[in-house]
Amino acid sequence: MAAALHIDGDSLTLETLREVVFEGRPVLLAPDAREKAQKARAVVEELVNKNELAYAITTGVGKLSDVRIPPEQIRELQVNLVRSHCVGVGQPLGEPVVRGMMLLRANSLSKGFSGVRPLIIDALCEMLNRGVHPLVPSQGSVGASGDLAPLAHLALAMIGEGEVCHEGRHIATSEAMKAAQMKPVVLEAKESISLINGTQAMLAVGALALLEAENLADSADVLGALSLDALLGTDVAFDERIHRARPHAGQLRTAANLRRMLEGSKLRESHRGCGRVQDAYALRCMPQVHGAVRDTLAHCREVFETEMNSAVDNPLVFTNNGDIISGGNFHGEPLAFVLDFLGIALSSLAGISERRLERMVNPALSEGLPPFLAAGAGLNSGFMMAQVTAAALVSENKVLAHPASVDSITTSGNKEDYVSMGMTAALKLQKIVENTTYVLAIEAAAAAQALDFRAPLLTSKRGEAARTAIRSACPPVEKDRVMAADFERLAELLRAGKVAAALR
Fold it and tell me: Are both 182 and 237 inside the same structural domain?
């Protein structure tokens, strides 16, 4: 087993998040972070002992922030806040997302601005390490005070209530905790608001989507090269001098990838003197389109990793002078914008992939390939309907790519009067990632089929490695067959990074 990840609130990365979420890397609170958390907790306890006024510590929350809570009812307030905010509906978030939420929430609390006892962070780590995953409904957040409802369902499990997934079963939290030899926590002053205030639901969805998107960007470069070679396209447009003249980082990287993928291709050499000057945009402009997607992913990564290591609850505790200040770090707008941006970028990645597919199946555009890549076209329909599926997915993405972050709706008695809709953006993004994966899977099947028809000429060594990987999941279509299972297998191949591996 990998060495434990010691979270400190400052150094979590997307890579370490992936290790915890998917590989089960253990998580512990770093000693320095424990000390910071304890110092902040001392500030909160002093305020409570003096019965001083402070939002969400000795008052209600939201519109009820002007209601004073007496000391003897503070524990009851903690439980009431968690229960009353558990109002989520819809399908539960997937286990990877929930694991991401737990890690992200623990890491944020580890910064030492939240005023929770270290044992609260320890409890989140212990649940992660023992595989006790709360059932968190996916809908109910407007991204205002962060993801209140999803995070409340997370906190509900911590106090021993609700349901969790443990060892593959949905069971009562109390039963799971008994099996995992854990005890529920009893929340003290401020701890409930620190657990439910934050952006960790939308962030977890977005971070995992970004990891998939980065793999899809590499896969698209590989598949684009295969499609271009199958269509007897030219690599002239990928000349490094062109891209140095417009030096966007993503554009430069995609152009370099395409050059590497096509290097040594016998297919390319077979028509070098054909006289064609340029290809259609779906082929010629891959560096500009795929590259812009890459630049978007890089921006999203920067925002996500900043947010992963931020204090996003309210109020925040400052130990240098004992101030407890109410603000708005829980607001999801920074994430909502990039979640929408990522969805738009991936919609374009799917869109240009479908256009390459169309060129391979359309006999008017396919440079002598059989109509619809069908052996015995007419008796067999080949990839005719596969392109229809890709078109449907691309068009669905166009609807889903409409930004959620331009919307707002007033909540909490007009106290929360401008909200981010970040979770809506995140949930849409999940579907866009799925759709884009399938579109690229269909292009992969078509590109391999088209290259088969160019035999005995072969593409490059890297291209042949990619085709071999594709063929491990999708045999040649020698006559019409049900292809749905092929596309599912190819989608898994893409998710596993086995197509992108050709670049490495």
Answer: no
| Residue 314 confidence (pLDDT) | 92
Whether residue 71 is found in the same domain as residue 95: yes
Name the stretches of the chain with pLDDT < 70.
Answer: 62-63
Residues 323 and 379 in one domain: yes
DSSP labels, 321-346: TTEEE---TT--HHHHHHHHHHHHHH
**Active site (catalytic) residues:** 55
- Residues 186, 232 share a domain: no
Cis amide leading into 456 (omega within 30): yes
Ramachandran area for residue 138 (φ above 0: left; ψ -120 to 50: alpha; else beta): alpha
- Given 198, 223, 254, the domain boundary residue is 198
The pLDDT score that the predictor gives to residue 25 is: 98
Please report the DSSP string for 37-58 in residue order: HHHHHHHHHHHHHHT---TTTT
Host domain of residue 173: 5-198
Bond before 315 cis per omega within 30 degrees: yes
217 and 194 fall within a common domain: no
pTM here is: 0.96
Same domain for 445 and 486: yes
Q: Could you read off the pLDDT of 338-368 as tens digits, one per residue?
A: 999 999 999 999 999 999 999 999 999 999 9
For 23, residues 6+ apart whose C-beta sits below 8 A from its C-beta are 2
Number of domains in the chain: 2
**What was the pLDDT predicted at 369?**
97
Separation between Cα atoms, residue 173 and residue 166, nearest integer Å: 9
| β pairing state of 163-166 and 132-134 | antiparallel
